[in-house]
Amino acid sequence: FCLPEAIVLNTKVLKKLKGAFQAFDTKSDNTVDIKEIGTIFYSLGFFPTQADLQTFTSEVEDERSGYIHWDRFLPAMTKVLLEDKFPPISDELLLQAFEVLDKEKRGYLEPEELTDYMTKEGEPFTQEEMDEMLTAFTDEENKHIYYKDVIPHLTLERKM
Amino acid sequence: MSALLFLSKSSAIRAALLIQRWYRQYVARLEIRRRCTWNIFQSIEYAGQQDQIKLYSFFGFLMDHFTPASSERNLISHIFRENEICRDAEWERYFCYKSIDVPDSYTGPHLTFPMTFCGVSKLVEAFKHKQQLHARYVLQILGETWRLLRILPNISHLSSCHTKEITICGDLHGQLEDLLLIFYKNGLPSTEKPYVFNGDFVDRGKNSLEILLILFGFLLVYPNDVHLNRGNHEDHIVNLRYGFTKEVLGKYRVHGKKILKLLQKIFSWLPLATVIDHKVLIAHGGISDTTDLNVIARVDRHKVRKTFHFQFKTEMSAYFILDFRRRVRSLTHHSSTPSQGPPRRSLHNLYTSHQHMNWSVDDELKKRRRLAGFDQSYGERKKPDSDSDPDSKGRLIPSVQMVDLLWSDPMPQNGCIPNEVRGGGCYWGPDVTEEVLGRHNLQLLIRSHECKQDGYEFCHNRRVLTIFSASNYYEVGSNRGAYIRMGADLVPHFVQYQASKTCRELTLRQSVGWTERSALQALRRQLFVHKSDLISAFGEFDPNNTGIISPSHWASATESVLKLGLPWRVLRPQLVSSTKNGMVDYQEWMKELSITEPKLEISDTSLLETMYKNHSNLETIFRIIDTDHSGLISYEEFRQTWKLLSSHLKTEISDDVIANLAQSIDFNKDGSIDINEFMEAFRLVDLSAHS
User: Fold this and answer.
1) pTM summary value
2) Per-domain residue ranges of chain A
3) How far is A99 from chain B (nearest CA, A)?
4) From what superkingdom does this record's organism come (chain A) (predicted)?
């Protein structure tokens, strides 16, 4: 039946979770800094918002110590997995998002426009994040951001 | 109309949110790759340090097998010979620059003495423009520096002041761009701008000498405001291996060895630590459970040589450290003495234990990752029985304390254990920090010695601060450098930077990619070096000799051979392209990792491999033998060295093979071997088309 398969999958998934956790367990004591929770989520292919991360963190943090222990992390993460709380963002969805911002449907965005949106709306970027995004996305010659071209180039080919 | 606007506004917000989420996820995954790459570099650096330990253990082995009558006696005493018989006055004459003329064709900077601020600034400008200082001026600066250092105490005491902040820099490792960047951002040293440089000025980078000359220049002009602490790389044996010796000899072909000799003296005279306001201690490596600044203040710092055993803290070891070479000489010269008197026996005792340490080092390799829950078997720091007695002689051994100050690293767990990764100093825990700082009434320890991704890092409840000033240390984009500015409140403020213009313009992805490629290449080299061991390890998982194994078997086998503690399963796709149906074709893979054919005609491939594996130690040994720094060693020296090393490594080498090898390496057929040519033959060229 499905049962054996489910078990294999679980072991694989467990290993993945453990692997991601251990990568940030710098003190080798089964805890990770709460600041790394976002990175751990992303490494597993989840796309939480900052608000989501805040909620998750407050539920699992070890008495405001600034650290999360594996024992609390694992059940919380399992719940996340089962409930598929933070599904990935597909390329198409991303494209649509850019197209919403590109009101005149030019096929590109100006750096100032993108900056406006990214630093003022949603969960705003820091200056550093904005600078990095602009460096990565802006076309050299005419300083436009051709989002359609940018999306496939910047997807990471190698899975962690 | 307004409803439409509202709708589009909220969808804009949602769109923005989506893009932000996606982007942050992308950056985070890049960050993970960067950390993995970081781990690779650190593991390889660790492997290099293990090599250094093997070198020291080889010296131990030599001593153990040394008999005055053995045929290798000349070579061995050559390696260990003490040539510091002259007194300082004689050295002054030897180092004299006056006979060296500066030709009219020289286009570099001219210096006048005594040094002035203008003079040093001129020097900085000249080095910025890649000029080289004439040997005469080099020797002049070094001579003045040597004279100044001899009157400085082991520990300098500074006072902070409301009107000026003290700047503290960590490792520079010959990276002139970083020093120039610091000066650019922070200003040049002066009475208004005091600086502390916390060791490791040299090795690895290409401009170690330029950095030294600049630092010494400022020291001469502002001796009360510029403070240099010795690092573990301010040591001529370390320099032989890590590039500083080569740099000097390459830049100064005629006067290089004189410059090196003078530098050797200068290094031994560098102060050991700095204390600010009796509250902040600054030293290169760190502390140990026995650190006592009063003891360290009294040691004869220029007489201490770092040796390779750190488990003994007895009178014997102190005697040993200060007297090592003299006793070797006495053994050589008094070969007619029938009885192996007390000195010989005690040496032998030390080496027996030392050999034991040699094996335990191999075991200890596994524990490198310092898993939580220390085992007893990790290796406790041997203490003399009278350790509980605070006045025990063991604790008061100043030379060992000095080594601890320059070589130790902090660890998260409590306790204090020998630092087997470095082969010197110890690992000390937060409890030791509290105890030592408490005992001295200090509030903060600032140290360097370890590369940190952000240039600095706190640990031990913010009582220990690591500061590292060499950016892009492993590779472009690998890490930032940083320096500290500290005012009268003694609160450290950090300034971070990353040298290299190209780096700043790279996107995150590009710089991670670049660093990653470099790390993988370094890793492939390590894999190549262990080729035969890997093949036998794979063979154990492949009893039917199919040439194929599973990825997880590949990962375990590789880790069992390399012992680097790396996530091989994750790395496999980037290291191995020869996979069939998800299985690894290891024989194909081994072929992928190759070097170009060396110029040596050696039919014996296992010999070639053993040599390659030990080539960096071989090179260091050759350079030690080559005392006149001519770059050449004789047949006989080569033959004997190789014979001794292979017997230490327990590989069988016949005399014929060695003789043939020596002949084939003698490219010029003049009876001597050029070290550089020999090493060039082992430079690994990556034939694989990856990356």
Assistant:
1) 0.70
2) 11-83, 91-154
3) 9
4) Eukaryota
